[in-house]
């Protein structure tokens, strides 16, 4: 599967997406469907018609909202793939509606809102934090958005 690895080391002018051949997409991969960054849940390839090209029918879930999106693209054309980055942070403090986090390099961030968390994930973080355990928070970042995708005790 083709990836956008060239963009991960980027700086301020980093691209949110990169082009990939539609035929190289796979289930479980990522693609921009109707302008939304989605994880591909289903894909099917239609045979070429009398005067057309083979097409891929893609169904995916938005990685930030969970909403379902569909799209169709010719297999010979490019489709945009979101540049997503997963990062582990240590939970330093829970300050009202915000989580204070620190990455492995010691950089702090305090812009992650608790209100944006799913209820089960927020409950899990509160339980781990309440037990005075070190908590590792995994963030998914891309397209100018941030989402907490997991929390676990640091053992």
UniProtKB/TrEMBL annotation:
InterPro entries: IF5A-like, IF5A-like_N, IF5A_C, NA-bd_OB-fold, Rib_uL2_dom2, Trans_elong_IF5A_hypusine_site, Translation_prot_SH3-like_sf. Keywords: Cytoplasm, Elongation factor, Hypusine, Protein biosynthesis, RNA-binding. Pfam families: eIF-5a (PF01287), IF5A-like_N (PF21485). GO terms for molecular function: ribosome binding; RNA binding; translation elongation factor activity. eIF-5A seems to be the only eukaryotic protein to have a hypusine residue which is a post-translational modification of a lysine by the addition of a butylamino group. Translation factor that promotes translation elongation and termination, particularly upon ribosome stalling at specific amino acid sequence contexts. Binds between the exit (E) and peptidyl (P) site of the ribosome and promotes rescue of stalled ribosome: specifically required for efficient translation of polyproline-containing peptides as well as other motifs that stall the ribosome. Acts as ribosome quality control (RQC) cofactor by joining the RQC complex to facilitate peptidyl transfer during CAT tailing step. Belongs to the eIF-5A family. This is Eukaryotic translation initiation factor 5A.
């Amino acid at each position: 599967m083709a990836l956008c690895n060239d963009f991960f080391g980027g700086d301020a002018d980093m691209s949110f997406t990169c082009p990939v051949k539609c035929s190289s997409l796979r289930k479980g991969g990522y693609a921009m469907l109707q302008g939304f960054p989605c994880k591909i849940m289903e894909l099917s390839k239609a045979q070429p018609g009398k005067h057309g090209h083979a097409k891929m029918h893609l169904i995916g879930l938005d990685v930030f909202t969970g909403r379902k999106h569909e799209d169709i693209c010719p297999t010979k054309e490019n489709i945009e793939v979101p540049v997503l980055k997963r990062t582990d942070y240590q939970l330093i403090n829970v300050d009202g509606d915000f989580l204070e986090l620190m990455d492995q390099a010691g950089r702090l961030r305090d812009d992650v809102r608790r209100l944006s968390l799913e209820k089960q994930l927020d409950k899990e973080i509160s339980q781990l934090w309440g037990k005075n355990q070190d908590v590792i928070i995994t963030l998914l970042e891309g397209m100018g958005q941030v989402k907490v995708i997991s929390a676990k005790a640091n053992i």
